[in-house]
């Protein structure tokens, strides 16, 4: 199928883009990487009257560290996160572990992190990480700029708190401190499919006990969610030696957190090849494994730090 007819503009500044989007006489869509939009237009599931191509707006490109946050401009492609040292600290590790799960290299070299927030697919890796880490979505519209907390941003599948006339200019993520270990594990049918479920975790350990836990669930509800009950179950827990072998004993705090996430936090939606019960089982297992990965990450980070000091 071919897209329906549309007008096309290429603004050179954010102000020009916002002006084009504010032309409320026409249904407009922003074109960033085009990796979701163009497909949807070809299938005529989306029929914009105006396409606003933001790829020639230099102020939207690049990422920078600002205080204790990473600011990711709206034109930064997924591929920018493939090397763990592209971003400092544990956040860089988390983003590099997650990004290889997004589609395949040609899509990652065009698609953008901000575009994933614009599209708001429940199976988006970036969106679940954003919710887990309390990211901020920066938008600019006819009434000026505003910041939306990721926890308030996602309203349902493909539905967000962004107004149609607003442009996402950047996504801001906390860098995470050196006492934080991170993990990301995804489960999907074939290599390039969207996740059936995936889990992002960031565990902060102070004086030997978990002082902060963040768990983001991908494709485990009608939107990306944070597993708050599971997080609460971990606070104050002492992390001892990790059991050998892939399976965590049922009584282990990470296994318990997995069950809590699956039963209390997740609201899985059935899909072909993954009914609700299957997804709950996958979430329980993946949460436990991802917490284990985060612990190993923290321990190797600390060991490397000790090595540096000797
Ligand atoms: C085969 C295939 C497999 C894929 N697998 C995955 C996967 O596993 N995980 C995953 O997360 N994604 C996956 N994707 C989607 C891909 O990651 C897209 O790149 C992403 O969803 C959207 O980014 P984009 O920059 O391409 O946005 P576009 O396609 O250009 O836009 C998508 C939507 O977001 C809006 N938008 C984009 N940027 C902005 C902005 N700055 N301000 C306001 N609105 C904006 C657009 O108007 C549009 O509605 C896959 C895509 C394909 C084709």
From TrEMBL:
FAD-binding PCMH-type domain boundaries: 1-178
Residues that span the membrane, as ranges: none
Keywords, ordered alphabetically: FAD, Flavoprotein, Oxidoreductase
SMART domains (UniProt xref): CO_deh_flav_C
Pfam families: CO_deh_flav_C (PF03450), FAD_binding_5 (PF00941)
Domain of life of the organism encoding this protein: Bacteria
Protein name: FAD binding domain-containing protein
Organism: Streptomyces milbemycinicus
